[in-house]
Amino acid sequence: MSFAFVSQAFGLQPRSQKQVFTYADAATATIEPPPVAERGGWAIHPVYLFFLAALLHEAGVTVFDEFVAGGNERAELLKQVGVRGEIKFPKRDANGEIATGRMPRTELFLLYSNLSTTAKKTLDKQTVRALNDVFPAAISLQLSKEVGDRLSIRSYAALIRTAGGVRAEP
Q1: Cα gap 69→30, rounded to integer Å
Q2: Is there a contact between 37 and 150 (Cβ–Cβ < 8 Å)?
Q3: CA atoms lying within 13 Å on the CB side of residue 81
Q4: DSSP element (H, E) containing 92
C-alpha cells in the first residue's frame, strides 16, 4: 500500500515507479536501527522513504534539497511537483467514537518531514496524542517508541540522496 500510495500521489508511470523503488530499496539496505525502548519498537517508515525517493526522481536535486532544508515553501514545492490526492484513516472523534480522518497527501508528507527534524525528547505522550488528532495514530505511536536523541526517519533524506547517486554538496 505504501508504494502505491506514493506512486498515485506523484502520478508515477511504470518506468518511474521502478526507479523510485530502486532508490528506496538501496536506501533501506543502509538504514541503521535505532535503540528501542521495547521489543518491536522500531520500523522503517516506507511512506516517507518512498515519498523522498519519488520527490528526488520527479523534482530533481534542487527541489529535493530545498524541500529537505525546510521552510515555509515546502507546501508550495509539493504543489509545483504535482502531488495530489488524500489519505483516509481511522481516528477517534470528540465522543471517543471511531470516525474517518482525512488529510491531503501533501499534508501527510509535510508532517513526516516536520517529524524528521523533531528532537525525540519533544515527542512525548502529549505530543503523540495531539498528533493523533491529525495524523494516523500508528505512525506517531511507532515514532514515540524510539529512544535516543533523534528519530530514525531523520536520516532518510541523506540515504535517498546517496541511493539516487547524488553526491552531497561540499
Answers
A1: 22
A2: no
A3: 33
A4: strand 86-92
Kind of pairing, strands 98-104 and 86-92?
antiparallel
C-alpha distances (whole Å) from 160 to each of 7, 49, 80, 138 are: 16, 8, 21, 23
pLDDT tens track for 83-126: 999 988 777 778 888 888 888 999 889 888 888 887 766 766 55
* Residue 14: half-sphere exposure toward Cβ, Cα within 13 Å: 0
The pTM (predicted TM-score) of the whole model is 0.82
Question: Which residues lie below 8 Å from residue 26, measured CB to CB, with a gap of 6+?
Answer: 162, 163
Distance CA 159, CA 23 (A): 9
